[in-house]
Structure formats: C-alpha cells, structure tokens
Design a protein that fits this description.
Layout: H1 2-20, E1 37-42, H2 50-65, E2 70-75, H3 86-91, E3 97-101, H4 124-138, E4 146-153, E5 157-161, H5 168-171, E6 175-178, H6 181-188, E7 192-195, H7 201-207, E8 212-215, H8 219-222, E9 231-237, E10 241-247, H9 248-252, H10 256-292, E11 295-298, H11 301-310, H12 312-324, H13 329-346
Parallel strand pairs: 1-2, 1-3, 6-7, 6-8, 9-11
Antiparallel strand pairs: 3-10, 4-10, 5-8, 5-9
Bound molecules: D-tryptophan.
C-alpha cells in the first residue's frame, strides 16, 4: 500500500514538473511528449449546456493554436468542482481553470455583475461583448487573484413554469428559482424567489420545491425542462454573467507563447459563446414547441413598463454596493449602457 502511494506521489511530481517547466519557450510545437502542458478545466452544469459547449470549443482551439503544446482536460457536470466551490477551488489550485457564474457569489464581483442588472440587453452576443470590454477597461480588483481568460453571458432571462402565467397576477406567490439580481426581479413581479444554482434546479422542479424558473430559454431543451415547464412567459429579464478564470500561479508558470494564445482567444471566445447562445435559443424553442407543444405568453407592454419602473430600486441597491466596494458606480453604469448601445448597432437582433 505504502509503496503504491509512493509511486503515485512520484508520478504526480514528475507530471507537475513536466507541466510547469522547461522546454524551448519560443517553440509552439512540442518536440517531446514531456513538454505537453495539461490544464484541468472545471465546470458545474452538464456537458450539453452552453457553459460546457463553450468550454469544449475553447479547449479544442487552445490545443490547435498551441500546436498541441497545451492540452485541456475538461470536467463538466461538477465532476471536479461544483457551482459554489468553483471560485475557491481555482484559487486553491484544485482545478487550473474554472467557469464561474458570477451571480452565484453575491457581493463578490460588484463591478462585473453590473451586467446582471435590468438594463434590457437584447441578446447574449451584445451582453457578452459588453461584459468583456467592461472588464478590460476597468480591470477590477475583484479578479486580482485570478487570470480571467474569457467572459460571456446567458441570453435575457424569461419565466418557465409548470402553470400558465399570462399576467403578473398569475405569478403571485408562485415559487420560481433564480439567482443574483433575478431573485429581486422575481420578487417585484409578485412571485416567490427561491435561490439556487442551475445545477440544482432539475431536482427542485422534480420535487416540486419550485414551480418554475427564471433563466434563458435554451434550458428548455438542454435540461429537458420543457417536459415539465410547458408554459413560458416572455418578460425580457436580465442576463447572467460568467467568467472563466485561471489559477494565478498556473498562469504565471505558462510559457509566453501559450499565454499569448490564451490571451488572443479571450474576446473571440466571448463573441463565439454569445452567438452560439443566441442561435441555440431559437433551436431550443422550435424543439420544445414540436416535442412538447409549449405555450408562450408575453407580458403586456404596461406590465413590462411597470417592472422596469420598479426595478430602478435594484439598480440603486447595486450602486450603493459598488460604491462601497470603491467603484465609481455611475461611471460603470454609463459604460455598460454605452457598450450595450455600441454592440446593439453592430449586432442587431433581427
Ligand atoms: N440562468 C443562469 C445562467 C444559465 C443559463 N443557461 C444555463 C445553463 C447551465 C448553467 C447556467 C445557465 C443561471 O441560472 O445560472
């Protein structure tokens, strides 16, 4: 037993040494197997969902663009780290890279969660590019212990439920799952907010702990929620921001060539993911209509205006929190709105 442990320990030391070190740093193609660096990448939702689809695409691109010098071993479905221990797990090096849903960490990312506010993003493409550029401009200290590799968002959120909800009156007291600012949006629509990560939602729906959820609509297909949530209400609620982060020491130990490849992928990956998400929603809706005959309602313009008015309180609460964290909240919000307008021109929703 002891001998086996010793051998395992030695083997892992050797692999750590080969992963972090040596080799010709200017060369892209690994000349020997020992030079290949393998990075672990943890993700919390199932493999089929958009955070994991983008993870696989990123992993493939990294491998291709480094000529095989960097390999990425992916761990979807909370097999390495879950939704809530992702941040600490990457900081402590249990995974080299992790995908964070920022809304699951209240108060930890005040600057970047400005994109989770009710500002009326029209698509994931626009919101993802806004988030990425906002991060690049402000380089907020909330990520100072991490290397941010890319960022993206889900599409605008809507309501999916087991019971038809055509108006706000139908939502009164209904338990709906959400997180981040969406919890307060659920409350101001008169429903009962229940906070939890997406990865716990299938069970909560099955057990009847919640009657529905608020998220982007592709989950109707990716989690098969359409089977249980046959009624969807369009309310154009906030997007959820994500960040893909790397352990700082692991980042520092990478050869310059590899760093360059990863840095060059950041914005491109944000755009790729936003566009994937927007297209995937259309596909999921078509699928859910055909397979389960889902019904889609839309809140009236008057009700939408009422929600917008009431949601100003959520923006004020965020401002106070951001100011407390040392940010110029008005300037950040101004940037969010200006970037949103810029990208809405460049990527109009048709
Ligand atoms: N709705 C957000 C983000 C989100 C949207 N689709 C997925 C799929 C898998 C995980 C998260 C998300 C949320 O609930 O976290």
């Amino acid at each position: 037993m002891k001998r086996t442990l010793l051998i395992l320990a030695l083997a892992s030391c050797v692999s750590m040494l080969t992963a972090c070190g040596g080799g010709d740093k200017t060369e892209t193609k690994p000349s020997a197997k020992s030079q290949v660096i393998t990075l672990s990448y943890a993700n919390f939702p199932p493999k089929i969902t958009f955070p994991c689809v983008q993870m696989e695409r990123w992993a493939e691109e990294v491998e291709k663009r480094t000529g095989g010098a960097v390999k990425v071993q992916t761990f979807p479905g909370s097999t390495l780290l879950g939704a809530k221990n992702m941040l600490r797990g990457v900081q402590e090096g249990q995974a080299d890279i992790g995908c964070l849903s920022l809304a699951y960490y209240p108060g930890v990312f005040p600057l970047t969660t400005s994109t989770n506010l009710p500002v009326g993003f029209s698509s994931a493409t626009v919101a993802s590019l806004t988030l990425w550029e906002l991060y690049q401009k402000h380089q907020p200290k909330e990520f100072e212990n991490l290397k941010v590799l890319t960022m993206f968002t889900s599409a605008p959120s809507n309501v999916m439920s087991k019971v038809p909800m055509k108006t706000l009156a139908d939502m009164r007291g209904v338990e709906l799952r959400g997180s981040g600012s969406l919890l307060r949006m659920i409350e101001l629509m008169g429903a009962q907010p229940v906070g939890m990560p997406m990865s716990q939602t299938p069970e909560a729906l099955q057990k009847g702990l919640v009657k529905g959820l608020v998220s982007s609509l592709e989950v109707l297909m990716d989690f098969n929620f359409a089977e249980i949530c046959r009624y969807e209400t369009i309310a154009n609620l906030p997007v959820y921001p994500f960040a893909v982060v790397m352990n700082k020491d692991k980042w520092n130990a990478l050869p310059d060539q590899a760093k360059k490849v990863l840095e060059n992928l950041g914005r491109e990956q944000a755009l790729w993911t936003g566009q994937y998400m927007d297209q995937h929603i259309n596909k999921a809706l078509k699928w859910a209509r055909e397979k389960y005959g889902i019904e889609i309602f839309k809140l009236s313009d008057g009700e939408m205006a009422g929600i917008r008015e009431k949601s100003k309180g959520i923006i004020s609460a965020w401002k106070a929190e951001a100011e407390k964290a040392g940010y110029d909240a008005d300037a950040v919000l101004k940037d969010v709105r200006a970037l949103k307008a810029k990208y809405e021109m460049e990527y109009p929703v048709n």
